[in-house]
TrEMBL record:
The keyword Transport applies. Belongs to the bacterial AtpI family. Residues 23-44 have a biased composition (Basic and acidic residues). The chain crosses the membrane at residues 52-70, 76-97. InterPro entries: Atp1_alphaprobac, ATPase_put. This is ATP synthase protein I. A possible function for this protein is to guide the assembly of the membrane sector of the ATPase enzyme complex. Residues 1-44 are annotated as: Disordered. It comes from Sphingomonas plantiphila. Keywords: Hydrogen ion transport, Ion transport, Membrane, Transmembrane, Transmembrane helix, Transport.
Length: 105
């Protein structure tokens, strides 16, 4: 019923508003790129992968190296090497599990 009644015509969209919205969206995306927010998730995952790899290698190498040195001094070859290597692997996996359970910021 109100469709047939005379009244004010709705305003047509102004081209300046459309242009302003486009420029605002472009400025927001440029600012996000400048801050590095566009690549943030990929960089965070890359850093987490490097940290996991460092934990794994560090645990194994550290345990093996300390075990080998103690075996040389104490003459218990290869038992301390094997024991500390196993402890290094266990601690590395414990740290990896802890890293993977952290909430992403």
């Amino acid at each position: 019923m109100t469709e047939n009644e005379p009244g004010l015509d709705p305003l047509k969209e102004d081209g300046r508003i459309t242009s302003l919205n486009e420029r605002l969206a472009r400025a927001k995306s440029e600012e996000a790129d400048r801050r590095g927010e566009g690549q943030q998730a990929g960089d965070r995952d890359y850093r987490m992968g490097n940290r996991v790899l460092a934990e794994l290698i560090g645990g194994m190498v550290g345990g093996a190296l300390i075990g080998w040195v103690l075996d040389r001094f104490l003459g218990t070859s290869p038992w301390l090497l094997l024991t500390l290597l196993a402890l290094g692997i266990v601690s590395a996996f414990r740290n990896i599990i802890r890293i993977s359970n952290q909430r992403s910021k």
